[in-house]
Design brief:
The structure is a homodimer of 396-residue chains. With 396 residues, chain A is α/β, with parallel strands linked by helices. Chain A has two domains: 4-48 and 301-394, Alpha-Beta Complex (Aspartate Aminotransferase, domain 1), CATH 3.90.1150; 69-295, Type I PLP-dependent aspartate aminotransferase-like (Major domain) (Aspartate Aminotransferase, domain 2). Helices cover 44% and strands 14% of the residues of chain A. The first copy, chain A, has helices spanning 4-12, 15-30, 49-61, 64-67, 77-91, 106-117, 133-140, 159-165, 188-205, 265-278, 286-295, 303-319, 341-350, 375-394, and strands at residues 36-37, 100-103, 123-128, 144-149, 170-175, 210-214, 236-241, 254-258, 322-324, 331-335, 353-354, 356-357, 366-370. In chain A, helix 5 runs parallel beside helix 11 (286-295) and helix 12 runs parallel beside helix 14. The longest helix of chain A is centred in the C-terminal third of the chain and has 20 residues, at 375-394. Chain A starts with a helix and ends with a helix. The model of chain A has no long low-confidence stretch (mean pLDDT 95). At the A-B interface, helix 1, helix 3, helix 4, helix 6 and helix 7 of A face helix 1, helix 3, helix 4, helix 6 and helix 7 of B.
Chain lengths: 396, 396
């Protein structure tokens, strides 16, 4: 009688959230120190000092009526100007404030972009492994997710697989680099390959195909270079969030940047505005808009993540696990020592270790571990990871 | 090629926003003191002192990682507990934290509730005059808005009109009291009449019909009593926002409360969670969730709005206008001195007066004036309102 699809979505919840909630319950039962929750991508490092100071300052000195008032639906002009300047300074793409639409975070950026671009029944390609909510967001726009696996040896693009997946109904492809859950960064070669295939398909079907670049982890890289898609492909929308770069995941602040070179750019931008309006995003939270204006280029101290990565990566290798060495984000994607990753992750629970089986990311036989947790916690978990793989080997 | 409906929505924008943006442009051209912008419901009074102090305090003393981190999708448990307590203390409806879902403000509350309840082609009744975005939000849920005019003499319910509008496809009715744009409060008699008609229709069609109570203005009343719908009708969802009560419209914080007596309550709540997830609302902004937990019952000083109301209402009456005396909110709904309200509002622009013609609210022949502006500004506008009606009378 009500919308059963929504009730289903609400009941099942995401696998990741499910494990996170289980972890909270477990903590209250057996004590926080005995639970090692590697399930959720909840940043564990403080926002940059600049953020803290700017917040205090804004609240103390600005008129609260202006500070907390509505902004224009697409975001305050001064905020969009700061964002556009920051993008141009780094990537020289000639973007203007009128190409920027401020959002309530990356998820909102995605649902709005998808609804703006897609008509019922359009196809949207996602590269597996992928963030599981992509499928939910694509279906929200009444479009159809089409999965393409990346190459399993280096997690770069599989050109043949991508070519095979494109049809006349392909409206967009979501590229997420650095990737959640694998931590892999698509190198320039992969990006060029993708763009070439899309250009050919655009010509063949005489229809624009858009790249939706989901980039919340752009700033979280350990030496790797992340190509800026707009410099390689015109029909691009960048979905950004400050959740990770400024360590403010709960505050829901990000943006959509429409490439000034997009075909029919004004209509695409208008559709973004229309989709935001339609879904009830009146404006992005105003205090954090004004914060972003003043801290556009600040980045949380990712050295801590790098230390965490090195600690857990090296230890797991030593114990006999086979993790993908991540170039970015704060996830480690590890081959499951047992064929059935779900059953392995269930075994891990007995040790208080919460990790996510890869099935919901669109590939089998891996688990994901978020290492955005306390260093000491990782240290204390290591003997348990060792026992866990030893136990698994007994059953081989 | 892209979604044309979204592009249309983005291009047309709302009539109200359009006038607001025009006002900003005009201000930069002829000077802020010469523009009298009564177009937008942007609160003009400060947040309560408690809000300011709590914000300063949270930022100074709480761990930033916890303060700005993700919360559960439905909102932090402690926040939902505070909200449930506040509702129970005032209305004794026996609501629990698990009936509360924190949102990014009233618009999000509405789009989520509508998507949770409606299937494609369901009908949703709205009472004219109505907030124009209701139609956009209903269509977002792929449902059909059905308009029912309230009684034009007292702006209470027209029972016959409501009965005629209900069909077997009716899924919900949106009730907005105090009302935007009229400022009218539906009295207990009207609420009882509505509930009786809905109960009969539920029995007739053997289908639940939900009341969606959109209540951002509940706290903004000048003596009138606003019945709490859950005490009159079981299948009720309350959509609340702290935008007006705490004067934080840009911060996007509110909630959905599902009546614990709703038919199939658990599924309704799950569908709310599913719809929020589907549209990319990961969680309501975390800092403002924690603020709400500590300031649940604070209310901005509405005496200022009352002073504004009395000033503008009395003056317009004196000049020969015929406004509806508002019991709540901060809007004055005034009969247009010319039959064509649009042309009258265009005339007003010449005086720098920005008011909204009533056509987009679903009724003809009125204009809406938001009196949530500076008292001095209203005072200075009065001679212009006088000239405006005198000019109009010349053309009669």
């Amino acid at each position: 009688m009500i919308n059963e699809r929504m009730a289903e979505l609400g009941k099942e919840r995401s696998v990741i959230r499910e494990i996170f909630e289980y972890g909270n319950k477990l903590k209250s039962e057996i004590g926080e120190d005995k639970v090692f929750d590697f399930s959720l991508g909840n940043p564990s490092i403080k926002p940059p000092q600049e953020v803290q100071k700017t917040l205090e300052n804004l609240i103390k000195t600005e008129s609260p009526i202006a500070l907390h008032g509505y902004t224009s639906a697409q975001g305050a002009a001064s905020v969009r100007m700061a964002v556009a300047d920051s993008i141009n300074n780094r990537f020289a793409v000639g973007i203007t404030p009128d190409d920027i639409y401020m959002t309530c975070g990356a998820a909102a950026s995605l649902t709005i972009s998808l609804s703006a671009l897609c008509n019922d029944g359009d196809e949207v390609i996602i590269l597996a492994p992928y963030f599981p909510e992509y499928k939910v967001f694509i279906k929200n726009a009444r479009a159809i997710p089409v999965e393409v696996k990346v190459s399993s040896n280096d997690f770069q693009i599989d050109a043949d697989a991508l070519e095979r997946a494109i049809t006349e109904k392909t409206k967009a492809i979501i590229i997420n680099s650095p990737n959640n859950p694998s931590g892999a960064v698509l190198n320039e070669n992969s990006i060029k390959t993708i763009c070439k295939i899309l250009l050919n398909a655009q010509n063949k079907y005489n229809n624009p195909i858009y790249i939706i670049a989901d980039e919340p982890y752009r700033e979280l890289v350990y030496g790797a270079k992340v190509p800026y898609i707009m410099n390689h492909y015109d029909n691009t929308l960048v979905c950004y969030s400050y959740s990770k770069s400024l360590s403010l995941p709960g505050e829901r602040i990000g943006y959509i940047a429409v490439s000034p070179k997009s075909a029919d750019k004004n209509s695409v931008y208008a559709a973004v505005c229309g989709a935001g309006r339609s879904q009830g995003f009146v404006c992005a939270p105003s205090l954090f808009q004004k914060l972003v204006e003043r801290c556009t280029d600040a980045v949380a101290d990712i050295e801590e993540y790098k230390k965490n990565r090195d600690l857990i990566y090296n230890a797991l290798c030593e114990y006999g696990y086979e993790p993908i060495k991540p170039d970015g984000a704060f996830y480690l994607f590890v081959k499951s020592p047992e064929k059935d990753a779900k059953s392995f992750c269930d075994k891990a629970k007995k040790y208080g270790i919460l990790i996510v089986p890869s099935d919901s990311f669109g590939v089998e036989g891996y688990f994901r571990l978020s290492y955005c947790v306390d260093y000491g916690k990782i240290e204390r978990s290591l003997p348990l990871f060792k026992k866990l793989i030893e136990e698994s080997k007994q059953y081989e």
